[in-house]
Amino acid sequence: MIATYAQNGQPGDAFDTLRQIHLADQKPNEAIYVGLLRSNSLMAEQEIGESIHANVTKVGYLSNTFLTSSLIDMINGCGDEVLECFANMLSCRIKPNVVVFIYVLSTCSHCGLEYEGCNWFNAMKEIYGISPKLAHYACMVDMLSSQGNIEYALEFVNNMPVEPNKRIWGALLTGSRKAHGSIDITECIAKQIINLDPKNASYYVILSNLYAEQGRWDEVEKLRRLVNQEELKKEMAYSMI
What we know:
This protein is mostly helical. It is 73% helix and 0% strand. The longest helix is centred in the N-terminal third of the chain and has 14 residues, at 30-43. Keywords: Repeat.
């Protein structure tokens, strides 16, 4: 019942069912806690989430990989808690899966934990035998770019065994602009993402602004002529005001 309520977006009914279970002096099983975690993710109640976390730990359900993954999903965004839950998972000798590593790498990226993120990325491959997916690579590029390591991030992208998408190139472009990185590298990145998403005017604006900062007005004009779709012209004109 709780799982059904969670899937249907009825968190209140899920927790009402839990109260009935407690009144009947019954012990919630692992599946019930998974449903509760999903329900709480809809309600975004931190205190309830912490209570569920404490109960899961108390009854010894952390050895359940699916339950632990749901727990990490619920607390995703709270860096210390995600990494603490991950550490508890490893201490229980639970093998993390593909999804768990996405959360861990994302947390390392958001918290600026570059050293830890690189270590876990390598451990995922070498210790746990998990082949990185595009989402894992994206987390790594986000992390390296946000720390200003643009050249290393670009080298990382060029050595990826999968084709980088516009999210990855976008992270590189944003990081390079914030870090005031090499003009040549920023220009190269901008051109790569324009090739992937030629109808997105924002990338043309970034490249045009880059040329303008260098006084390369011929390039600015050439870029304006390149944009031949009316809606792109309007957006570029508005963005450059």
